[in-house]
Amino acid sequence: MSTISRTVLRGGLVADGLGGEPFLGDVIIAEQTIAAVVRAEERPGGGYDAEIIDCTGRIVAPGFVDIHCHSDLSLLEYPENESRITQGITTEVVGNCGMTPAPDGHDAAGLARVISTIDVTPDLEWTWTDVAGWMRALDDCPTTTNVAAHIGHGSARFAAAGTRTERLDDDQLARLEREMEDAFAAGVVGASVGLMYAPGESADARELARVARVVAAHDGVLSAHLRDYRTNALRASIDELADALGDEGPRLQISHLRGLSSGSGEGDRFADVLAHLEALRTSKDIAADAYPYVHGHTTLIQLLSPELRAAGPDAVVAACLTDPTAVAGLLRSAGYSPDQIIVMKAARTPDAVGRDLTADAGDPWMRLVDLLVANGGLVDVAVESGRWSDVELTLATPWISIASDGTALNRSHSASAAHPRSWGAFSSGYRRLRGHGTPLGETVRRLTTAPAARVGLASGLVPGHRADVIVLDDRTFDSPATFSRPAQPSVGLDHVYVNGSAVIASGRPTAARPGRLIRKGQQ
What's the rounded Cα separation, in Å, for the pair 224 and 367? Predict the structure, then answer.
């Protein structure tokens, strides 16, 4: 007679993710689900017929849900997903910033260039052409974490109209909508736009409204990388998306909300931006996510003028060859000093990766021009572009969740430099929230059920839910990851369970890969 495998996480302080006061108790896992949550005073006198994990002095919480990451391809390369499980992430949502590795419009090489900034696995072979095929690849790959996906508007636009920067005609808009419909039929949980990345940044109000209507029709979430994060332009960028929602639009999730300051005082107005969002939230379903760092990570092209970057990397290289002094001037005028810019990815010039612009003699801006030419326009940089005061404001805002904007990696990764957020956004965010006096129950909510709800995923220590559970030390849980040493697991994390299987036990990865693809409507 077969018996159900049961594990009891016994004697910990249970923070169930619902935001209330934590309580001493036990969490019972049966096979892949949470069977019960038992308060200490209700514990059966005869004990449990199960494997017992002593959690005395520890926090037992739902696994963290990262609703903004870029593991679209790297999860297939690194299915052990060390960078995520070692900070307590059990579910991640890919397909953000308008970029997905499908649909390719029968031009896989062209799409690869369009989404190059999220591709840190240059040797990975793409075996699909559409979103359904990409999701089957994710489904077929045994991973440590669960994954759900968006359809990237920029990729769908590429399939419909290539890299054109002009307004889409009716036929092209219809093709764009068909690509999105096909993606929802394949099980995506939402769509994302990246209005600072070609070709998505060429979308006008009419196009964005059509995108929003498709997402709303499927009860999805619209995740938005805004057109301009400079604090003096942030309100207008938010309003552009809020207007596109109309009166019956989808949930809007503003991605990695932050104010970019170039030293001209714009950052002083970030509080006004949050107040404006508070006002919008009275009539529209809008929330945001953020990461606890002041360095962003993006393509070097983003430091150029909108007109030039919208034309794509080939046009940028042509401009560098035609008038390198002018391009160097554009890079200089972005307002950052050489020590604020770190080269993160430059595949053809690997010696430049991981270094800031003070590392070599000569004009740093001309050196960036040379890097763009040498790498075909495909260069990534980390830029110290935010303000810690703005980070503190986001952490003090209950409708802003933690999300990493990072990537599934392991410690062998060498194709690019990793931003510390890939390894430590959630542990660092947890530590900062707790350090600012955020109650434990609220802290856990903002890393678990709050982001999960935005994308329609179940979370929380609730009977019947997936048994995605973590056990951590509230006093020491933190991230040691830095730019010089990013690939460092978090400290203070004892156990991680995904779908009831331990992927970390007593602080060490187990090599189990119980993760699965979660399609919309499947929990």
Answer: 32
Query: Distance (Å, rounded) from C-alpha 10 to C-alpha 169?
Result: 61
For residue 291, with 0-12 CB atoms within 10 Å meaning exposed, 13-18 middle and 19 or more buried, which class applies? buried
Q: Does residue 511 sit in helix, strand or coil?
A: coil
Are 469 and 63 within 8 A, CB to CB? yes
β-bridge partners, 493: 472
102 in Cβ contact with 129 (< 8 Å): yes
3-state secondary structure of 472: strand
Q: Are strands 23-30 and 6-14 parallel, antiparallel or unpaired?
A: antiparallel
Dig out the tokens for 61 from the structure: 């919480």
Which residues are CB-neighbours of 519 under 8 A, at least 6 positions away?
Answer: 135, 148, 186, 187, 188, 189
Minimal CA–CA distance to 144: which of 401, 499, 455, 459? 499
Question: Following DSSP, what letter does each residue of 141-172 receive, concatenated?
Answer: S--SSEEEEEEEHHHHHHHHHTT--SPP-HHH
The values of phi and psi at residue 77, to 5°, are -80, -35
For 150-199, how does the pLDDT look when each residue is reduced to its tens digit (9 = 90+)?
Answer: 999 999 999 999 999 999 999 999 999 999 999 999 999 999 999 999 99
Flag the least confident range among 17-21, 147-151, 211-215, 346-350. 346-350
H-assigned helices in 141-252: 153-161, 170-186, 205-217, 231-245
Q: Does residue 119 have a pLDDT over 70? A: yes
CA distance 391 to 489: 23
Q: Which residue bears the tokens 């919008």?
A: 280
> What span, in angstroms and rounded, lies between the C-alpha atoms of 503 and 90?
9
Residue 360 confidence (pLDDT): 83
DSSP string spanning 378-420? --EEEEE---HHHHHHHHT-TTEEE--------TT--SSPPPT
Does this model's pTM top 0.85? My answer is yes
- List all residues 6 or more positions away from 33 whose beta carbon is below 8 Å from its beta carbon: 463, 464, 465, 466, 467, 500
Q: Find out whether 65 and 452 touch, Cβ atoms under 8 Å.
A: yes
Q: 312 falls in which pLDDT band (50, 70, 90)?
A: confident
Q: Which residue has the tokens 């949550």?
A: 37
Interaxial angle between packed helices 170-186 and 205-217, expressed in degrees from 0 to 180 and rounded to the nearest 10 = 30
In whole angstroms, what is the distance from residue 422 CA to residue 455 CA?
20
Q: Give the DSSP H/E element, type plus range, for residue 309.
A: helix 306-310
Beta-strand pair 221-225/190-194: parallel
Which residue type occupies 238? I
CA distance 376 to 315: 10
pLDDT reading at 337 higher than 70 = yes
Q: Which residues have CB under 8 Å from 328's CB, separation 6+? A: 363, 365, 366, 368, 369
Place of tokens 């070692």: 86
